[in-house]
Amino acid sequence: NAGVMQNPRHLVRRRGQEARLRCSPMKGHSHVYWYRQLPEEGLKFMVYLQKENIIDESGMPKERFSAEFPKEGPSILRIQQVVRGDSAAYFCASSLPTRAPYEQYFGPGTRLTVT
Amino acid sequence: AQSVSQHNHHVILSEAASLELGCNYSYGGTVNLFWYVQYPGQHLQLLLKYFSGDPLVKGIKGFEAEFIKSKFSFNLRKPSVQWSDTAEYFCAVNAAGNEKLTFGTGTRLTIIP
Predict the structure, then answer these.
(1) Chain A contact probe: residue of B99, B103, B105 with most A CBs at under 10 A
(2) What's the gap in Å between the CA of A5 and the closest CA on chain B?
(3) What are the mean pLDDT values of chain A's consecutive 10-residue runs (115 residues total)?
(4) Can you tell me the distance from the alpha carbon of A5 to that of A93, in angstroms, rounded to the nearest whole number?
């Protein structure tokens, strides 16, 4: 049973470009979470999605960031017009739609570097 | 808002030494508590979790943690560490009914053979 998959593992973008990060949850998991880890900091929650719904986006920056989890296909975290401060590791986690609290399984992360 | 503190940023131990990593959280309500481990080059893995019941929980690889509600603590312990325990350890908490996890900044553990 494959774990949570994220791609790309490393992404380099110039300032002003768009970054698209993909997350495929574990088989049977319909809940997806995105976290960001800045250098020397712990992981910070960004957004929690279920299929076709955003449940909690309280950690998402107000501008340039968006996330989706369509009925088919992976979850996408999209960062428009990237800036140097967006350089970080972005982790995706998924969980089963069973009785809460949900146990989250993490992917390997995408390391975004903005030059 | 809840927060998690891990006071030890880097811990260095010899093999067979005992380990205790501190974790304190601030939140007044009911919480779920987790310890995750990230081995070099690998993704985060769940070591153990506390949801309710016995405050002493046992996880994989001989790790255990004790929830002390009065101290808002969830310290991780292992009686005898191995070189393969070298990794970064993260404590995390979420409020009951809220799935988003709040993480500590992590503790890097280095075991010397």
Answers:
(1) B99
(2) 10
(3) 89 98 94 92 93 94 96 96 96 85 89 96
(4) 9
